[in-house]
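Quick one: C-alpha cells for this chain, please?
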Amino acid sequence: MIQIDDVVVSLDVLREKFLCDLDACKGECCIEGDAGAPVELEEVEKLEEVLPVIWEELSPEAREVIDRQGVVYTDSEGDLVTSIVGGKDCVFTCYDERGYCYCAIEKAFRAGKTDFYKPVSCHLYPVRVGDYGPYKAVNYHRWDVCKAAVLLGEKENVPVYKFLREPLIRKFGEDWYRELEIAVDELKKQGML
C-alpha cells in the first residue's frame, strides 16, 4: 500500500489491469449484486434533483420503488445505497435496443441535460473507497461480471488507476492524482510494480 495525504491506496489499484468492455458485459454491474451502489450523503440531493430529467428513462418498476422509498435506502450493513428493483437492478438503469444497460443519469449528463455525472462510487468502479477514521482506503474490487474488463485491460495494458483517472480526480483532486502518478513512477524505478 501507498499513502498520499489521508488516502491509502492498495497496490492492486496500481498493478491490476482493467478496461470496461460493454460489448461483453452489457452493463451487468448496474443490475447485479445484493444492494444498490454506495451513495455519499451530499449526493442524495443531486439524485433527487436529476429525477425530473431522467424520469421517463426509468422503468415503471423503478419509478414505483422511488415513489415508495425514495432514491436511496440504508442496506443491511448500514450503508446508504441507491434503491434497487427486484432485489438487484439499480433504479437508475435504462436499456437500449440491444439490451445493454446504461445509467440514466450518465446518459442525461452526456446529453447535456444535467451537470451531475452519477454517484462517485459508480464512476470509481472497480475501486471502492472505505472510511477508516482519519484515513480513506482505495481498494480494487474483483467481481466475476467484470472478467471481460480484466481481459481487455490486460490486452491493452491499462492499469486500474489509469482507467479511473477521471473519477479519481473527481474524488480526490488533480494534485492528489499527480502525486499518485509520481508514486507509481518511483515504485516502478524500485522494481515494485
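The chain has a mean pLDDT of 93.
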